[in-house]
Design a protein that fits this description.
The chain has 114 residues and is mainly α. It has one domain. It contains 4 helices and 2 strands; from the N terminus they run E-E-H-H-H-H. The protein has a two-stranded antiparallel sheet with strand order 1-2. The two termini are 21 Å apart.
Length: 114
């Protein structure tokens, strides 16, 4: 689970904590490694999966993949250790997955009302 303590203008983000589902955390960390390389030529399997997604989810997915790869580049430019950078990317990936899960299929680009 990612941690965050925010109040007003201050925002403090923590790392991925060891609470919650360990299997899900391991999958997030593994998936974050895949964002280190750019998505220049997706496989046929990935293109087929994208064809089944809604246009809003597809657009959100492309933006997220591009953003996570750009974050990798920033961490590497700042000479962060790859394992530390990967956990930071996994943390962002958790938030991105949550935003996709709450995306309303009827209204493109908006979230569902609770």
């Amino acid at each position: 689970m990612p941690t965050e303590h925010s109040s007003g203008q201050s925002r403090s983000q923590g790392s991925i904590t060891k609470t919650g589902n360990g299997h899900a955390r391991r999958l997030l960390v593994e998936a974050a490694w895949h964002h280190r390389q750019p998505y220049d030529r997706p496989s046929r399997l990935m293109r087929d999966r994208w064809d089944h997604a809604t246009p809003a989810a597809r657009m959100r997915g492309h933006e997220g993949n591009r953003r996570l790869h750009e974050r990798w580049l920033v961490y590497l430019e700042h000479r962060k250790r790859p394992v530390i950078a990967n956990v930071a990317i996994a943390r962002e990936l958790a938030g991105w997955c949550w935003s996709l899960a709450t995306l309303d299929e009827n209204a493109e680009g908006t979230r569902m009302n609770p």
